[in-house]
Amino acid sequence: MANNTKNVMIVGVGGQGSLLASKLLGALLTDEGYDVKVSEVHGMSQRGGSVVTYVRYGEKVYSPIIAEGEADFIVSFEKLEAARYAGCLRKDGKIIVNAQSIDPMPVIIGNATYPEDILDELKGKGLFVDDIDAYGLAVEAGNGKSTNIVLMGRLAKYFDIPYDKWIEAIKKQVKPQFVDVNIKAFELGYNF
Amino acid sequence: MKRLMLGNEAIARGLYEAGVDLVSSYPGTPSTEITEIAATYDDIYCEWAPNEKVACEVAFGASLRGARSACAMKHVGLNVAADPLFTLSYTGVNGGLVIFVADDPAMHSSQNEQDSRHYAIASKVPMLEPADSGEAKEFVKEAYRISEEYDTPVIIRMCTRIAHSQSLVELCDREHRDLPAYEKNPQKYIMVPGNAIKKHPVVEERTRKLVALGEETALNRVEMGGTEKGIICSGTCYQYVKEVFGDSVSVLKIGLVNPLPEKLIKDFAAKVDKLYVIEELDGIMETHVKSMGIDCIGKEMFSPLGEYSQATIRKAFGMELPEVIKADSEIPMRPPIMCAGCPHRGLFYTLSKNKITCLGDIGCYTLGSAAPLFALDSTLCMGASISGLHGFNKVGGEDSEKRSVCVIGDSTFMHSGMTGLVNIAYNASNSTVIILDNSITGMTGHQQNPTTGYNIKGDPAAAVNLEELCHALGIKHVRVVDPYDLKQCEEAVLEEIAVSEPSVIISRRPCMLLKYVKAKAPVKVNPDKCVGCKQCLKIGCPAVSYKNGKAVIDTSLCVGCNVCTQMCKLGAMEKGEE
User: ipTM of the predicted structure?
Assistant: First the structure.
């Protein structure tokens, strides 16, 4: 069945702040009048493991999860995680990735190797990969923890939702003391 | 007003709107947020009980007194609460009582994949299963109506993808209920044989009435579309079926999953050419349909393992799948790990280094089983470390006693570790029990427990003194160590396994992720002293890695616990300056 549901995956390493990113996106899309589903995983995998959040929106959304080859966007907080979930991307989808490497335990203890040129490999396969130093930009904005909002700023570039609506959503979803730094982070991601 | 809500948040909202007065639970992924969020409503009394059996019995007491009550747990928690459940089915309720159970197909955070629907069937209790957050909230209110009208506890079954998915929910007001005067009713509530024998036929009659309810309730609904395929489904599978087929098939969506209707299914089956049952885990609805002599396709096409998705259904029906582009390079796994500064690490390193057999338990410390520590020999269920060690040592004798320990967290010890420890003292095995006291229930996301000194609202509460408790349970050797001090850990472990009597070591330090725990300056590597021996990597800390022949500290992760500095014999790992 033809389905006009749009799919965004937010992936990263447990503890990187992907839940705030999905909360922001979910609230914004709800305000825009879409039917929205957001699926998260809590518990064990949050302890430094690979984490994935699904955000789906459209006229009527059924499944809360995104299967292989279905994602319009993959927003990744880390390079290896972008590659891990690349198979979920539609052929014409876009990967937005924080070009940071975080070694997983098998690499730390020498049982596996981190494929450092993994983003080039994905590009070589014809996938659209927009890699930015989101962590660096977040530090520039005043707090490395706003990496998630830098990435949301980057994602916003590809969305046809007005810039101001994103800023409004940030003001609503973020604690007052962090609003300024997150707006700065959003701008840096958007204008990168 | 519509709001985007987590399934568990919607359940909490449903509890509020249904006028529920009491919620008692033990945390367990994916059920925890039901109670955490219910506790944010001042009109509902909420608490963390030490285990699910206690929680269910607290809910029973509140029901007996006439209030609407609830308890929430993960699927394996219902095993613990099964004892009160089966007899609650006989007593029935005064105020409505609903048990929330969250299954975890695919075991995102669980030790097994059991299907809780079996409990509803076995205890002869009605069970509802919502398919999104909006339904979850409405089903809560319907569950209380059924509970009171049919005089029965009701179970609402969630699963990870409903509990932890957000969808839109319409908010309503809270129903006002007054607490009725208490009336004693011994025939109904004292389940001695003479009374229970009269209740069993009532339960059977109730099931017949609930089947009749299932034929007409709006909880079950037929969505006629194309009649070539008819699909019976419930919960999250309904969403996958609609995603794939839309209106091109007919669907019988079951919301009252126990007891199942008969006429509704027969009528539906008669209207479609081919009948399918799509359900995650066990073929329970399928068995019911087949037992009525109706032909259907179920587990021949769909696995009893793991969770489904729209792709599962497309594959099973041989439909076209989207093109998939993947990297050719091998992508290293990223398993969950103990955090940098985790107080369990030093203790596990001590066990691993001394090749000590260690029976484990349920919590963050289950992660001690992973590389490079490989510190655990078993993980079964809540509390099994202590009782298991006793059995292990009883048959293994002195040789075994002097080489083995078990580990259990503070919350798990409160849940079901104490009875095992009494058994060690009473039946005398020279076992060494290590309580990993990190002052919180960690894995489920920081819930208070009877040892932490705070209640669910964060208000001060009575705190169990673990040392005194262990003494009172009959253990004379009780000592406390700081797991950040490797020498102290090693001394304690080696001495306690050597003594010829039972002992308890309390490894005490609060979880590094707790807000009040302040990080210290990160460790520094002195590159002139580091020879790249990789000794520091043996503790498996995510903040310590190895690049270009030297140890490297990730200063964004390191919290200055200094366990790694104790690993380095050359003094190359230096304490950070405060």
Answer: 0.95
